[in-house]
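This week, look over our next protein:
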Amino acid sequence: MSASGAEGQAAARGAGAEGPWTVLRLVLWSADYLSGKGIDSGRLDAEHLLAHVLGLGRLQLYLQFERPLTPPELDVFRPLLKRRAAREPLQYILGHQPFRELDLAVEPGVLIPRPETEVLVGEILAWARSEGLEAPVMLDVGAGSGAIALSLAHEGYNTHIVAVELSEAALDVARRNRDSAGLTEKVDLRGGSLFEPLGENERFDVIASNPPYVAEVDEAGLEPEVRDWEPREALFAGADGLDVVRRIVAGARAHLKDRGLLALEVGARQTAEVVELLRATGEYEDVRVVRDYAGRQRFVLARAG
């Protein structure tokens, strides 16, 4: 079914030639509408939006397919659907994003946590266990919504985290996520750029970062949800995407304990160059690359010599 013009008005009224807007009918219509806007996940997104409006889990919709929507429910749903059709990220519309064991608030102006970053957290936790560290002190450079720092604190038991973030908008969201997760005492959030908020003698067992790493020349190839909505300062880092990574590599060793771990997320085509950057310093050993869920080279980990 087409999804424009008079049909859009019918959706707003909750009635049409084919009868009332049941859950199933609205999901199917909305999926077609979103697909027509170039959104591959139209059906899934429509289900998430409708579940959000109805206060249900997405899978609960399948038990209520024949339920008719009320006019007030349709009035709430319609603007959300239009926002998604404009390629606004679903996470911004819903206001949250699951990440490992947490459900994080997200909003425009803050980078949306990616599932692949969960792998980086897992690698860090596994390393800390292998080293027998009972109360490791960790630093998250560029905390964003707090995904890495809060997950490490939540799953790392006695772990204490310092998390640094330049963006005030992101820092505010990270604070809210920290406090709602009950991690206020374990995560020290500081405003500032990279290592500037740290004391000269502060040292960490782990320094982790998911920095901006998109090359400016790759901007046109990004999905509209990323290019047009997420904060540029959290995405782009110079002509080759490695401007911020170079600064982290240059400054991390001064704040890393001997034999401590530096763990970075970078672009899938950047790992070889980042490995060479680390080796060229003469400050790291056991440099290795880890793949993400899709099998792409995504993370570079190294031990301080």
Q: What stands out?
A: Confidence is low (pLDDT under 50) at residues 1-15. Residues 96-304 form a domain with the Rossmann fold fold (CATH 3.40.50.150).
